[in-house]
Amino acid sequence: TTRIGGGPMPTELKDECGHLIRERGREYGTTTGRPRRCGWFDAVAGRYSVRVNGFTDICITLLDVLDTFPTIKVCTAYRLGGKLIERFPSSATVLERCEPVYEELPGWEACLNDIRTFEDLPKQARAYLKRLEDLLGCRISIVSVGPDRPQMITIRDVM
Q1: Which of 15, 24, 65 is nearest to 41 (CA)?
Q2: Could you give the CA distance from residue 103 to residue 90 in angstroms, rounded to a whole number?
Q3: pTM
Q4: Which residue among 96, 117, 141, 152 sits deepest, i.e. has the most Cβ atoms within 10 Å of its Cβ?
Q5: CA 128 → CA 3, 5, 11, 32, 44, distances in Å?
């Protein structure tokens, strides 16, 4: 998950891991060159986006950025004052106080750049994508494994 500008971002990584994600993903503003804020995938925010936009299919970009991680975290809920929150808060003030609740998945530690079919992705990458689908309640139909057009894997046609 990335963000430009201020405001709450529960999954933001202000450490070497966040820096690595930013560098591998070239996460800098195209006009200003400002570094984007980077963090683990936020399924709470993702579910909200799927719901309010009526998505039936989504695209996951930059999957290759995660190639070097032995484990990958996914934010499945937030914790606020000891209470588990699975829905995106309506207030930025509340979101600001939320702590991410993570699930850890095994990484694949393999370069994805030359893969062109879903079936050829490492089983851990396929499991990660399946878990995201389950958490979001939405199909992933396209996955990118690099910045070039041939590095887009179509899993299913989007209608």
Answers
A1: 65
A2: 23
A3: 0.93
A4: 141
A5: 22, 28, 17, 33, 16
